[in-house]
Amino acid sequence: MRRILVVLAIVAAVSVLPADAAKKTYSHENYFEHYEGTKTCLTCHEDEAVSFFHSQHYQWTGETPAIVNTDGEKLGKRNTINDFCTNPMPAWIGITKNSRGELLSQGCSKCHAGMGKMPSTELSREQLENIDCLICHASGYNRNLYENEDGSLEWKPILWKNQVGMDSVSKRITMPKRTSCLRCHAGSGGGPNYKRGDIEYELADTDRTFDVHMGTDGGDMACTDCHAGSNHRMQGRGVDLMGSDHTGAPLRCGSGESSSSYGGGEATVTMLNQTWSVSGNCERSSDDLTFVAAGDPMLTIGINTQSNSKPVGNFSSAREDFGVPIGTARTPEPTVERNGSSFTVTGTFMVLDESSIDGAITVDCDL
């Protein structure tokens, strides 16, 4: 009798769910019926695939304006040696196990946005269909290495034999999320923090005490909020990387963020001992203020305060923070005045040598 009552209770609970609770809608559910590999994406997005083919994420090489004696040659992981992974080409794809049969490695292509073929400099249909669009753009997508009947190896979705599941996942198309980027970048070099000491799987879902930018109660930013460029060309690069997707001005803190989401203001500094003032508005009067000065020489400050007319702090050279004093400039006790959501920050540069300051001070409202 007790078993019957439990079953009836479960049935009753399920019956009160909304009629549309089981039906989820996905961004691309009306664009195709069945996912048949990258060729499905190419039906509408061949131009985007071509731009990605030429990007450093696919080619693993890029322009090298900051490297001497390259004579215009594109360099990158594919044709140089680095001290983390040496060169990925000899270990591009394969299944390596130890004596106990435990999987050790599946090759460097595990973190290449392709299906397993080596990237070629020659554009072809085969190369376009080798691009794995879903690894960056599909929420919930995962893949593994499988052996084909001819003995070749290929990266395939883990649902490749489940058409219904594959159709569902392939229609969940979004811009790249933190989890998409961390899939490769957090474990580069062999594991968390091996190669990138400031990139950790924890960033996928964390709070502002761990990372003020990506914390869900902080900026809740995606990697692409700062690093997204155009035509699949990403801004910024690791100091160990030869090539660059963007060869213009270097990416600086704040230059990739949309200040309009927080409010803020900016002032230009162009001369010695100049008094500067930044005024702006925050979305809320309770928002903290974060100050950033960028230019040549690059100066930074990160001070939070909600008090009126209170000393905010001193500018210091970013390089000086790492123990290499360069004697450029400081600004003593800049002050902040607040009136509701508006603010005004005032200070003066005191240059310690003959160099000049050429840059901008930005004040952002930090949620």
Describe the structure.
This protein is α+β, with helices and mostly antiparallel strands and 367 residues long. Among the domains are: 38-176 and 223-227, no CATH class; 259-366. The chain contains nine helices and 15 strands. It has helices at 2-15, 38-53, 56-59, 125-130, 134-137, 163-170, 178-185, 224-227, 318-321; strands at residues 96-97, 103-105, 143-147, 153-157, 263-269, 275-282, 288-296, 299-300, 310-311, 316-317, 329-330, 335-339, 342-348, 350-351, 358-366. A hairpin with a 5-residue loop joins strand 1 and strand 2 (103-105).
| Helical amount | 10-25%
Shape: globular
What structural class is derived from the secondary structure elements? alpha+beta
Low-confidence stretches: 1-17, 256-264, 291-332, 350-358
Rg (C-alpha, Å):
26 Å
Q: Give the tally of β-strands.
A: 15
What is the average of the pLDDT values?
Answer: 73
Largest sheet: 7 strands, antiparallel
How far is it from the N-terminal to the C-terminal residue, by CA?
A: 56 Å
How large is the share of residues in beta strands? 15-25%
Q: Reading side by side through the largest sheet, how are the strands ordered?
A: 7-15-5-6-13-12-9
Q: Give the helices and strands as they follow along the chain.
A: HHHEEHHEEHHHEEEEEEHEEEEE
Figure out the total of helices.
9
